[in-house]
Design brief:
TIM Barrel, elongated, alpha/beta, 11 helices, Lyase, Ornithine Decarboxylase, Chain A, domain 1, 2 domains, ten-stranded mixed beta sheet, 369 residues, 29% helix, 20 strands, eight-stranded parallel β-barrel, binds pyridoxal-5'-phosphate
């Protein structure tokens, strides 16, 4: 690890991202690959992530809002874009202005999309997610209305609720959803023969060949995290984001001294405490206090005490020699050691998605590779 002049920064390994996209495109086979770059490319930076994904074989990009579609266009990205989230008010015109396609599941949405002149509509079927989408029984009537309105229906889609659950009571539910979807999609396709049929997120893409259909929509796997929470390497995926800071101060403490808010940690022996100027405001969750490890000079070092808003403390050990300016890896690899998003997620009771999306705006993303 070379020293960094920044308080903290997040290298974004675009070479790893391109590798992941190639793996997913291969897995998808004949199906097209949509790289989902919503939420600022899952925290990695939407425009660099989108560009790299398109270079490596993604033919579509998915975002959540019309504003995110505009951001891609402003960044010079001209690949087809689908706004996956609900569109309201002036966003219909903004999506149309960005040349982005939208998702509709109601007569109102259909009318608004047609009035705004969006270039393509994807009809969304709720096959069991219980979120956005029309019930399968309503899909033929909505498709008929689309025909009557002259709407450019270019897709029919659904979303799985349990694609990441390979065991337990929900393991079979993805198949149930897929069965419902296929028969409904057929009815829509009778009216719009060119419509792309798509359902699979990262987990379904990796796990279920039958779910790949005409297109897969991959987010988390593009960024090198496993949707199943297991080792990304098991799926030939490479982590894209790291978070690197430095030791800003070193303090010698004595046995029984406490460190940080609430005195949640006390030294069992004299030791050297390193202060790292990153805290929960940067997305390093408070729940990681006294639990997580960081990497210093290629070794795992425990985070001790409560995580503050802007700072955290690590026990460098009594024999340590590191001083101010030493790099600290909060997420990513150093030598043979690695802290993964999946590891931090497990420690704080969440999923890798929340870890990478949650890295704060105060930490600059630095594209590399
Ligand atoms: C976010 C999203 C995806 C991508 O999901 P991953 O699990 O990150 O692959 C796919 N489809 C829709 C509708 C989404 O909102």
């Amino acid at each position: 690890m070379t020293a960094t002049p920044e308080r903290a920064h997040a290298p974004v390994d675009l070479g790893a991202l391109r590798h992941n996209v190639r793996v997913l495109a291969n897995t998808a086979g004949r199906a097209r690959l949509m790289a989902v770059v919503k939420a600022g490319g899952y925290g990695h930076g939407a425009v660099p992530a989108a560009r790299a994904a398109v270079e490596a074989g993604a033919s579509w990009l998915g975002v959540h809002t019309a504003g995110e579609a505009e951001e891609l266009r402003a960044g010079g990205v001209d690949a087809p874009v689908l706004v996956l989230g609900p569109v309201t008010g002036g966003e219909w015109a903004r999506a149309a202005g960005a040349g982005a396609e939208v998702v509709v599941w109601s007569q109102d949405g259909l009318a608004a999309a047609v009035a705004a002149g969006v270039p393509g509509l994807h009809i969304k079927i709720d096959t069991g997610m219980g979120r956005l989408g029309i019930h399968p029984s309503g899909a033929p009537a909505l498709a008929d209305a689309a025909v009557a309105a002259g709407a450019p229906v270019t897709g029919v889609m659904t979303h799985f609720a349990t694609a990441d659950e390979t065991e337990g009571p929900n393991a079979g539910f993805m198949r149930e959803q897929l069965t419902r979807f296929r028969s409904t999609a057929r009815q829509v396709r009778e009216r719009f023969p060119g419509a792309l049929v798509h359902a699979a997120n990262s987990a379904a893409t990796l796990r279920e060949p039958d779910a790949r259909l005409d297109m897969v929509r991959c987010g988390i796997a593009v960024y090198g995290c496993s949707p199943f929470g297991d080792a990304a390497a098991a799926h030939d995926l490479r982590a894209v984001m790291s978070v690197v800071s430095t030791i800003a101060s070193v303090k010698v403490v004595h046995s029984r001294d406490s460190v940080g808010y609430g005195r949640t940690w006390r030294a069992a022996r004299g030791t050297r405490i390193g202060l790292v100027p990153v805290g929960y405001a940067d997305g390093y969750a408070r729940a990681l206090g006294n639990r997580a490890h960081v990497l210093v000079a290629g070794r795992r070092v425990p985070v001790v005490g409560t995580i503050s808003m802007d700072q955290l403390t690590v026990d460098l050990g009594p024999e340590s020699t590191e001083t101010v300016g030493e790099p600290v890896v909060l997420l990513g690899a150093d030598g043979d050691e690695r802290v993964t998003a999946e590891e931090l997620a497990g420690l704080r009771g969440t999923i890798g998605y929340e870890v990478v999306c949650g890295i704060g705006a105060r930490i600059p993303r630095v594209p590399v590779g």
